[in-house]
Task: structure prediction
Amino acid sequence: MNWLRSNLFNNVFNSSVTVLLGTLLLYALTQAWGWAIGQAVWVADAEQCHAARGTGACWGVVAEKYRIIIFGRYPFEEQWRPLLATLLLMALLLASCMRVFWQRWFAAVWVVVLTVFFILMHGGVLGLATVTTDQWGGLPLTILLASMSVLGAFPLGILLALGRMSDLPVIRSLCTVYIELIRGVPLISVLFMASFLFPLFMPEGTSIDVLVRVLVAMVLFAAAYLAEVIRGGLQAIPRGQYEAAVSLGMGYWLMQRKIILPQALATVVPGIMNNFISTFKDTSLVTIVSLYELTGSLDLAVNSDPDWMAYKLEGYLFIALIYFVFCFSLSRYSQWVERQVNRGKVH
Result:
């Protein structure tokens, strides 16, 4: 009550604004509740949805099309494979966030899980039917693109950041040109070049899978932005840290690994996690090269059926909820990492 009195009702003007905004907010929430919950249709019945159109949401489109939205064009009878593969990959990502698993042997676990993931998704062995990458889609493809992009971009971003701060003019110039060139164009153009222009420069008869080309493009794009975030952390390290490491007889790479990089990365944890979140959301752009991740799978599911075409909004809200859960979880994890790395600092 004291907080309300001092911040929202401390004079006549603020009290009037508080009451007005509170009334508008209550009205908006009441209308939203009625549309999304109270008068909504929850069953996969197109006739009921048509009858409630304009007054209530039609969540029946999700009940009817959720398998296409989640798994895209993956063969219906084989969808247990991407489900199992996605659960394994998500379990691996969750384990990677726990300090107890931050051991060298965990790299072998990554290799094993990714191998199993691609075996399940592609098939062709162990009696599994072959499913080409152009049929992959939905949530499995989104998580695969995001995790592999982050996995590849992080070490490359570190090398680019170190290269841009190098005392060697050639290395510094090459890294600077690369970073500024990639950051100067949108991701869509990079994906377009990787998917349509790059194959033109390949030898005749040579073909690289479109998924591989898209992954490489996303890794290169994310690494350029991540490099600038890490470079900011490197510049924040006092010069005395470098001099102390040199005085102890440390070489360049040992100094970076033991002294400089741990402090620099801890300084820019929010920026790094923001880059990861941005990369996760940027996976929605791969639809331009005919890879149907979550948003592409939704268009595929709804646009192909006239009965449900009018309820795309509900479908977008459904996948927006999925994106929010993942991005909010990354944000909360970032705050936990910040508390861990700042535990030994004196404020």
